[in-house]
Amino acid sequence: MKLFDSAGVAAAITAYLYCASTAFNHGYLNTLGLDSDLLERSFHQTIYSGLILSLSNFLWLTLGIFCLTVLHFLWQELKDLIGSCTRLTVFLSKVKNKLGITNKKTETYHKKYEARVMTSLGVLLSFIGVSLVLMSHESKGADMAHKILDKVHDQSAATMKSEDYENDLVFLYCGTNNCAGYDPIKKRVVYLPQQILSIQTSLGKQ
Prior knowledge:
Blueprint: H1 6-32, H2 43-85, H3 87-99, H4 104-154, E1 159-162, E2 169-174, E3 178-183, E4 188-193, E5 197-200
Antiparallel strand pairs: 1-2, 1-5, 2-3, 3-4
Helix pairs in contact: 1-2, 1-4
């Protein structure tokens, strides 16, 4: 499979979205001290969450590609202008062609290793870029968790009630099958199934 065919691009984007969502979720759950195994999400939820988190990144990526394309075009135009205005370069080129002086071996060697260097540099920069983006998503998840903690202290967070548990719980997170809440009375995290839950929020309040 080629790296840049449609299947390869789709696989790479899917893997990135999954990693971005997982990094954000890890930062959030880890900050709140929640067990990710008990709050597992479906694959589609993870991918969609990663897409929402990465919309701004995709925007900046496309803008960066556009700017680089324009700069490359301007650079080529500048090189062509300089080359056409340099009489010495034109003269030497004509002399070499007339004398049959070509150094194809050196040119081939140079282009070969230049391509290798550029490929290695591209891989390195891609790895660094992806790593920084994932670290940024994890940091955003941790920041959101800190906001939840602030709401818990201010008693302004959403609360939930279950028939299987006696006290009201501060809502922390919901996975595919289970939800996590904080019991401010007993000061502990409680995991409950989603079958019978009611959540009270500030929606509709003036």
